[in-house]
Write a structure and sequence with these properties.
This protein is of the alpha/beta class and 389 residues long. The protein has 2 domains: 198 residues, Rossmann fold; 118 residues, 2-Layer Sandwich (60s Ribosomal Protein L30, Chain: A), CATH 3.30.1330. 48% of the residues lie in helices and 18% in strands. It has a 10-stranded mixed β-sheet with strand order 3-2-1-4-5-6-7-10-8-9, sandwiched between helices. Helix 1 crosses helix 6. Bound molecules: guanosine-5'-triphosphate and magnesium ion. Guanosine-5'-triphosphate binds next to helix 1, helix 6 and helix 8.
Length: 389
């Protein structure tokens, strides 16, 4: 699935930049192209891979290239005012060669959080290609303003984008580690998982073609339900023996079936681990409406029956009935890796706790002007040093 990534704000820009770096090293390059949009000049200059002409500075007359300081209402206003500049760049890159847009932003900040629903809305108005979003949720300890920003941005984004893949920064923290120390790892994890899904159906220049191809329409159909999506990943090392003709012929009669059963059960166990393990957004996988499984690895390990069995297992366990599956042959790999995309999730405790906290913060913020007025009123009762008034 050829994808145009638009990174908004600092986190979005860094992740878009990582998508490009990863793409150029991959066996199927040019599956991703990327643009970065920001109101902070230094964030844009800090990018390493996105070409200069694809870095768009917005809001220069308002914030003078310094960012919006976590004010996502200002971020949204700036993006609305300068939507034309973003759309012009998109049309110059040429949308005809892309199958989908992928907008990426942290929902807790200002620029990306405010801009992401605005850009999604404008793209949907102009283009037929699906608009997907990756939204980064703040870790729980990042503070109230991030929580409120994320809740407001998410509420606006969900109806504007075709589907929203959520990532919880808090999930990936190791003991004692700060969120900042984890950024690079989280960003690589996002890019790896989405990269496998998008590249699986891209057969250009590929030596090994998949037995069960995951084509673009299957990804689009899985995400069509919209709503909240999460992505899981698990892998297992395999030893791929180089066998001669005689040994392969012999294995057809002796031990061949046992070999296949071994591979099939390995696939089922990797798929189960990817589904129940560390998802980008922790959630109850059983509440998903649709799912897509992509198995990547050496062709000899990608047992068709195993994938089918795993697909059936997931089909029986999620709330909806549509589970698609396919393989992505990587002849040189010594791992079998599995990506599971869960779409239309209705139960994610982290989203619930974020929205509950945001409601309390919103009420607190609404009360603040009243408290200020109270002090003013109290002060007016007090005489100045010089006497009355
Ligand atoms: N996963 C991840 N999260 C990040 C990264 N950089 C910042 N964040 C998170 O993003 C949120 C802040 O959003 P930013 O992207 O920095 O904000 P911005 O869009 O640039 O907006 P302003 O700086 O307010 O103009 C916080 O929750 C950070 O923890 C990153 O590289 N990766
Ligand atoms: Mg910033």
């Amino acid at each position: 699935m050829k994808t145009l990534v638009i990174g908004l704000g600092q986190a979005g820009g860094k992740i878009a930049d990582t998508f490009l770096a990863d793409d150029r090293k991959s066996p199927v390059p040019h599956t991703f192209e990327a643009i970065a949009v920001n109101s902070a000049l230094s964030d844009l200059t800090g990018l390493a891979n996105i070409p200069e002409e694809d870095r768009i500075l917005i809001g220069e007359t308002v914030v003078k290239g310094h960012g919006v300081g976590a004010d996502n209402r200002l971020g949204a206003e700036i993006a609305e005012d300068e939507a034309d500049a973003i759309l012009n760049r998109v049309s110059k890159i040429g949308v005809a060669e892309f199958d989908a847009f992928l907008l990426v932003a942290a929902l807790g900040g200002g620029t990306g959080s405010g801009a992401i629903p605005v850009v999604a809305k404008h793209l949907k108005e102009v283009y037929d290609e699906p608009v997907y979003a990756v939204g980064i949720l703040p870790a729980e300890n990042e503070g109230d303003i991030y929580t409120l920003n994320a809740a407001r941005s998410l509420k606006t984004l969900l109806p504007s984008a075709d589907a929203v893949i959520l990532v919880d920064n808090g999930t990936f923290l190791r003991g004692g580690e700060s969120v900042k120390e984890a950024y690079e790892r989280i960003n690589r994890e996002i890019v790896k998982r989405i990269g496998i899904i998008a590249r699986a159906g891209e057969v250009r220049g590929r030596k090994s073609v998949a037995e069960m191809v995951v084509d673009t329409s299957e990804i689009i159909n899985t995400m069509r339900t919209g709503g909240i999506c999460s992505i899981g990943y698990a892998s297992e090392r395999v030893s791929v023996k180089k066998r001669g003709f005689l040994s392969r012929l012999l294995s057809l009669f002796v031990g061949g079936r046992r070999d296949q059963i071994g591979k099939a059960s390995r696939i089922l166990s990797v798929v189960k681990r990817a589904t129940k393990g560390r998802l980008l957004l922790p959630c109850d996988y059983r509440s998903a409406n649709k799912a897509l499984i992509v198995l990547a690895g050496p062709p000899s390990e990608l047992d068709r029956k195993g994938i089918e069995k795993a697909r059936q297992w997931l089909e029986q366990n999620i709330s909806g009935a549509e589970v698609r599956g396919g393989d992505y042959p990587l002849p040189k790999s010594s791992y079998v890796g599995c990506v599971v995309l869960l779409a239309g999730i209705s139960n994610a405790p982290r989203v619930r706790s974020l929205l509950e906290r945001a409601k309390i913060v919103q009420e607190k913020v609404a009360e603040e002007p009243k408290r200020e007025r109270d002090i003013e009123a109290l002060l007016s009762d007090i005489d100045k040093l010089g006497g009355k008034t």
